[in-house]
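Morning run. Coffee first, then this:
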Amino acid sequence: MYAFFRAVFIGALVLCATVGFSQDIQFMRSYYADDFRDWIFFDTEDQEIGSLRARFQLKEDYSQWDFRLGEFSGFILQRWNGRANEWEIRSGNTFITVSATWPGQFDSWRIISKDQVYYLIRDRDPQDFTWQLSLDQKTICRIYNLYFRDPRDWEIEKFAEKIDPALEMTALFLVGFYSVKE
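And here it is:
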């Protein structure tokens, strides 16, 4: 009898471990059609798995954001008040710094995480919004809008097996915020 319950318990643990944190963001959508302070993340089965929200909802203050993806959460802060070209992302033991590649130009970003430098660059196609996240000139993911010139819905196409969730959240924040900011 003991062996049976032990086998069932181990089987349940293995099942939980394989299911675990397999929440992979497939696309994000703004919660409201005319307000970009709230974003929702969805998985491949169109299930809501997380959110990104401006911390101060009643003000025109976009300097602080909170995000959640399952059990994973953190915040995004503007490093200096009034300077929208430098950000920092904190989640658990992860600390990411972000700066515009060129001051005042918000279509190319340098992201530093764990001693690695990533670049998030918007394609120059004036007809569409497409961003690419790269490391050592190798594309890790591509983020593009689902509808022509509509910054409310975004899909993420991943080329790497595993992307750090904080890095992915950083890229999605920059894409959503700076595609609307134009």
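The longest strand covers residues 138-147. Good start to the day.
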